[in-house]
Amino acid sequence: MVDAGLRLRFNGEVPIDCQWPRWQCARAQDPLPPADALPSPVGDAWLQVRGHDLWLHSPGTVARALTAGGEPGHGYGVLPDFALRGIPRRQGRRPKRPFAVAWSPYVRYVAGIRYDERALLDYPYLESTPADSARPRVHAVKLGVLGDAQQVRDSLYVVDTRSGQQHDIALPEGWNTLSEAGVLGWEGGRLYAVIAHFGTPRRLRLVEIEAGSGAVRTVLEEASDTRLQLNVYSYNRPAVAILPGQDTAVCCAS
């Protein structure tokens, strides 16, 4: 989004920017972000993962670390092993784009989910017929299974891209984020996410986070003794909309 409306960027041999609704198109002057980058909504900056932290890039400036404190099994923007995409990522078959990260609409903040897999045990996966060998190959990934004392833990974080101020937001004991939901929307300097408790009854909680302070407020909580999620299937997009400028959330839990 830009002040003049919506800007579209088309990839090809020559990058082209078009502004809608006027449909004024011209050759893009800014370089295209690399394939493993997460561009900002305005297109003037992008995020990449280096090591276990997020780095902020923009044309004509030196890249800088946006987060601090990332480590193996507990990084920022890092695809976790339990997503079962860690193997193709290690093999270089998937771009290492920042995972579970969202920009605020006007690029001031970056927020996301941070996964802690440090206490998980290794789970072996067998690649029976590797492309470059006749011998099977074993891949070890971090994965919690039913009965394990330690499971993946997660938390939320928000970073001010101007000041570099970082807030790591721990969840209440027994609560987890919903990976399929992530950051649902923004209203000025506030962001909205859903956390879940899978005990009995099941509970979903819509929370509001002040990006500048990291303060958390419960907006709405629902409970059910049977089934409770944000759409018919967990892989569907959440049936939740944050209406900017109206202090209103439209949601439907099933």
Automatic annotation (TrEMBL):
<protein>
    <recommendedName>
        <fullName>Dipeptidylpeptidase IV N-terminal domain-containing protein</fullName>
    </recommendedName>
</protein>
